[in-house]
Amino acid sequence: MDSNDLSNEEDITHGDKLHLLKEQSFVTIAETIELVEDEELTYETKTKKSNSLEEGTKKVEQQGKVGTKSVTYQINRENGKVVNKELIKEEVTNEPITEVVLVGTKEVSSKGSGSFGWPAVGGTITSKQGERWGSFHKGIDIAGVSNKTIRTVDNGTVTAAGTRSGYGNQITISHNNGLTTTYSHLASMSVSTGDTVQKGDKIGVMGTTGNSTGIHLHFEVYKNGKLQNPMKYL
């Protein structure tokens, strides 16, 4: 009011211009306090080569975990406003745990050993190679499984994966040693042409596609292009 030569509010009328002054404190209240806070410590990530993992694959061997530290600050305030914040002490209360990631270096071989594994998870042979129903049955049939996973019998390269007349969904694998195997009537296929597979890898699921009377695997073996009796290799 004094800055505008006014003695009371009644002297103010519509249209008057007023000069407003910012209120200033004539006394500075200074204080210094200590503040203790918990802060996170980030963990490091390290990689380690592993020849037990295939090249191009990764696996976390040890999960990383953040640590904590207790930090003490000295804070100066004037009239309630922080004018300075200074770190005066810090103490690690929990060390961070470094994350360790394994990086595979093992080369995947596409050449088979010639020693076959079983192409299914359990099961029994329900039909062997030979004359059957007036025609020659080229392979063996395996059925009676609870787990319908189909596996490759040896290392190799998938040379075909698709639908073939009479055989339904069929996968052909060259073991790059003169031997070739086929897996037919599959419900689904987990590999594609050109894939490299290793002995025991899942390649599909047993089914009844194509000319089939029930859920089973039809398995054939060829050597240098000539049909073989699968029982010689299993």
TrEMBL record:
Record's keyword terms, sorted: Signal
Biased composition (Basic and acidic residues): 44-62
Chain spans, region Disordered: 44-66
Domain of life from the UniProt record: Bacteria
Keyword Signal set for record: yes
GO molecular function terms listed in the Swiss-Prot or TrEMBL record: metalloendopeptidase activity
Residues in G5 domain copies: 27-107
Xref: InterPro entries: Cell_wall_metabolism_enzyme (IPR050570), Dup_hybrid_motif (IPR011055), G5_dom (IPR011098), M23ase_b-sheet_dom (IPR016047)
A Pfam family that the UniProt record links to this protein: Peptidase_M23
PANTHER family per the UniProt record, alphabetical: MUREIN HYDROLASE ACTIVATOR ENVC, PEPTIDASE-RELATED
Protein name according to UniProt: G5 domain-containing protein
Organism for this UniProt entry: Guptibacillus hwajinpoensis
